[in-house]
Write a structure and sequence with these properties.
The complex is a heterodimer of chains A (270) and B (270). Chain A is of the alpha/beta class and 270 residues long. In chain A, 34% of the residues lie in helices and 20% in strands. The chains are: A alpha/beta (270), B alpha/beta (270).
Chain lengths: 270, 270
């Protein structure tokens, strides 16, 4: 592989995944990944632009940012691209009234949305709310529709909590897709529109930005398909087999965010 | 198309064809009697995973169907054979009533996952346990992958969507033992001395009954006993195949199985 200097040349902005890169979630709270608090602070002091791009869909953006601040991170809501606010825009634009298959933690994001007489389903990482009953309700709503619309906040396969790996929303999206013979519209990584909206907020072109994430498909593959570069960290949901993924090859693998920032500060934008 | 020989065996689906839950499809008992008098081998093949063979037989007898236990071949029977063959200890995501069919199988410290239709077990925690076993290398055995089934209160999610969820999250493929798998239809004929080319399958599921039977060289007859089913979506995937459709006129669904069996059998036998 080419030297880091070559691989990171011309990078002017960094897009950071949150869960598994900044911290590992635990029931209701979380634990910062060693070195990540300082790494974010160092990035922010540098000339590089920084933005956060998450598929978090169990907590509201406000709760997520508050948790991160409690863990010591320098972060504010305006710096985060998150799927729930993006979904609300789409719902309003298209006059959609969703049945919400979501956790209670994120329900407040949809306070302004009309959910009467639903004409689509919105599915997020609902955790314990992924009961058979709730899944069946979503299924029935979709089967009643002439043109079933299923909007999914991300499509991740699993994520990591301190207790181990956890099924993510993608598994349940697949279940509904299979049951109804339809395909979901994904709001979140790896959808190109999602990465583009984050880039737009940063005022950068894809080739000027690099994504740092723990998901080889959602973060790395998605960003690369948009023309960005991408590094995978060996934290969070990373598994050794990711480095030999049949389809996705990261522009680099690093032990954690701290190492990624060391390399970026040394080599980027030169 | 293989040369069609004289009709020697008839495979009949149970749920949705002979009965819907605890009610016989009107006319089905008489139809079965007529079939018996046609001197063909009859086997009852079902993906009903909620009930053991014994329970099935009891229900059918109560509904006055003339059926014996050794004529029934279920997907649970097929699953048990595979578990024994692989010598694994399964985590059984099946309905309590199906458990008698797994008597004597060791299930402590599981190293395999068997998924049937078990709405009360398809909760997040349990599916997550299954997910973690699969990541550790446990094989995934699906009793069948039906997308949904008909209940008195409408359509409800079958096991297929949940199997698909686990497949997507773990990147492994389930071994499916029920309809529409080829081995299921061939096993059902074992001991009858009949060939697939001499067999006709009658069922209410376009993909699982008709499509599956046709794949091994049988003829497939679709009965339309579920009037609420969204047929356009169901049949879309089979357009252009050799499916025999018998679309009853509206309101005439009641006698459908008798009429259709009669028509088809007269055609085949003469």
């Amino acid at each position: 592989m080419a030297a880091w200097g070559q691989r990171l040349a011309g990078v002017r902005g960094v897009l950071l995944d949150i869960s598994g890169v900044l911290f590992d979630g635990a029931e209701g709270s979380g634990v910062p990944i060693a070195g990540s608090v300082e790494a974010v602070a160092r990035l922010k002091r540098s000339r590089l632009k920084v933005r956060f791009c998450t598929n978090e869909s169990q907590k509201s953006l406000g709760d997520l940012v508050e948790l991160l601040q409690q863990l010591g991170f320098d972060i504010s809501e305006g710096e985060v691209t998150a799927p729930a606010p993006a979904t609300c825009l789409i719902l309003k634009e298209r006059g959609l009234r969703p049945y919400l298959l979501i956790s209670d933690g994120i329900r407040s994001e949809f306070d302004q949305i009309d959910t009467s007489n639903p004409n689509c389903v919105v599915i997020a990482d609902a955790g314990e709310s992924f009961s058979y009953q709730n899944m069946n309700k979503a299924f029935q709503v979709l089967m009643e529709l002439e043109n079933p619309v299923l909007i999914s906040l991300g499509k991740g396969r699993y994520y990591k909590e301190t207790s181990g790996l956890m099924l993510d929303v993608g598994a349940y999206v697949k279940a509904l897709e299979y049951a109804c013979g339809i395909e979901a519209e994904v709001v979140g990584k790896p959808s190109p529109e999602y990465f583009k909206s984050a880039l737009q907020e940063m005022g950068l072109e894809a080739h000027q930005a690099i994504m740092i994430g723990d998901d080889i498909v959602g973060d790395v593959g998605g960003a690369q398909r948009c023309g960005m570069r991408a590094l995978q960290v060996r934290t969070g949901k990373f598994r050794p087999s990711d480095e030999h993924h049949p389809e996705v090859k990261a522009d680099g693998y690093v032990d954690n965010l701290a190492e990624a920032v060391d390399l970026l500060l040394q080599h980027a934008d030169k | 198309m293989a040369a069609r020989r004289a009709l020697k065996a008839v495979l009949v689906d149970l749920s949705g064809t002979l009965h819907i839950e605890d009610a016989a499809v009107p006319g089905a008992q008489e139809a079965l009697k007529r079939l018996r008098s046609a001197s063909v081998v009859v086997r009852f093949v079902t993906n009903t995973t909620k009930e053991s063979k014994r329970d099935l037989l009891e229900r059918l007898k109560k509904l006055e169907f003339d059926i014996s236990e050794d004529e029934i071949f279920t997907s649970l029977t097929a699953a048990r054979s595979l578990v024994e063959q692989k010598q694994v200890r399964p985590m059984l995501l099946v309905d309590d009533r199906a458990l008698p069919d797994f008597n004597g199988i060791q299930t402590s410290d599981p190293n395999a996952v068997v998924v049937g239709l078990a709405p009360e077990r398809f909760h997040y925690q349990i599916l997550n346990q299954a997910f973690r076993l699969l990541l550790d290398g446990a094989p995934l055995i699906a009793i069948h992958k039906a997308r949904y089934y008909k209940r008195k209160d409408g359509l409800a999610l079958g096991p297929g969507p949940f199997v698909t969820a686990l497949e997507y999250a773990t990147d492994i493929k389930a071994t499916v033992v029920g309809k529409p798998e080829k081995t299921f239809f061939l096993e059902a004929l074992r001991g009858t001395g009949c060939e697939p080319e001499e067999t006709v399958m009658i069922g209410d599921d376009c993909r699982d009954d008709v499509g599956g039977a046709q794949n091994v060289g049988m003829l497939g007859i679709l009965v339309k006993t579920a009037p609420g089913a969204p047929f356009a979506r169901l049949t879309g995937s089979l357009r252009g195949s050799r499916t025999c459709f018998f679309q009853s006129p509206p309101g005439a669904g009641k006698a459908s199985i008798e009429q259709e069996m009669k028509k088809k059998l007269i055609h085949l036998l003469t």
